[in-house]
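User: Need the bound-state model for adenosine-5'-diphosphate:
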Amino acid sequence: MPFYPLNENNILDYLQQRPALKDFFPADAPVAIREVGDGNLNFVYIIENQDDPENAMVIKQALPYLRVLGESWPLTQERARYEAQALQEHNKYAPGLAPELYDFDDEMSTIAMEYLGKHAIMRKPMVAREKFPRFAEHISSFLARTLYFTSDYYLSGPEKKLLQAKFVNEELRKLQEDFVYTNPYKESEENNWNPLVDDEVQAVRADTALKLEIAAMKNSYMNHAEALIHADLHTGSIMLNQEDTRVIDPEFAFFGPMGYDIGAVLQNLVLNYLSHYGHTPDPEARADYQAWVLETIREIWNQFAAKFDALWAENARPDSELMPLGYWDYPDGQEAFAAYRQRTIQHILEETAGHGGVKFLRRMMGVVSVWDISSIEDPAKRAVAERAAIHIGKRWLMERKAISSIDDLIGIVQEETKDIVV
Ligand code: ADP
Ligand code: SR1
Ligand code: MG
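Assistant: Bound-state model below.
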């Protein structure tokens, strides 16, 4: 079937063309359709049987341009295939932590998936100060499992390389190479920042030591093909409620550094922490929520590190490429294997700080901010959060090699916010 854009009027006819979807709704069901895409790239339709709220699905379609920048910014539709492939891998290695994939149509660039009608995009309730006691447990499992099982620490060399070959994703990688690691720090037409932090933006662009480290992190992003990463794991790609957490929207997925995903989660939580200087005037309510955010960051990292270490110790195989079990088969081998795991996890923490640090900067001076911050209407209050985000981002990046635990990263957030009065 040749490609055409879906809309509310033609989508039911489209479902009838797809063997996997045509019987999803009873023939006479009163079906409601709404487009809800609020992301930067694609169109998302919810299709619901009004007689049965459990009988619903989501259809996501990639059009040949970038939604947030319009038709003048072309983008190939291959991204739908990468998203479908990544959803398959996530469901395989982290079942219950991603939406179920019902169908993928390459010609139409559409994905049909489970409707998460009882979940919310995480940014929204976090701005309303809702706490999620099970989030750290869930997201640390998602990270540990998807990253470990797609790495050379589990797979054989040929298995990893064959999987990697399915995730070239050259176009969306190029977007992040530009929008995260390059354009925000030089003149580029799409850059956008609050004029009240212009001094900070100009200082970043003229800071040689910082620019050398941003270049180093770009090299890591491009060349450290450690595991299948989600590659856009901000809190707009997480849907959750009090009991359940799902990671959506993995269209940027490719083989990159593990620290990019972990850094994205932690850095987005810190941006939410900072946003409460604008959203929450009551100092007690603000401090209470901010304390929960920092504790969640600590738990995510500590649980990730423990789970990753345990998965590795329990699942390493005779043909795992880094390293085959036989490599550790000598009298001190088990201690050496444990030391290698700890050394690797320490390096992941360093890269978490480095990539997370750059991602603070890109959100403050690049193409798009995050809703937590951009929804602070008063530019002066927004600047308080933005200035702190730039300071924290610089320090996570510049001090990453001296960081020995997650407490050091949290300490930087506390130091950079201790004198804020609003
Ligand atoms: P984009 O690729 O454009 O960033 P997203 O995958 O982030 O698109 O989806 C955009 C929005 O659509 C989300 O913010 C969410 O509100 C909604 N959405 C996406 N997937 C689902 C789903 N499986 N169930 C319910 N809503 C969803
Ligand atoms: C214009 S696309 C901007 C950003 O949206 C996605 O969420 C990626 O992070 C990308 O950089
Ligand atoms: Mg999105």
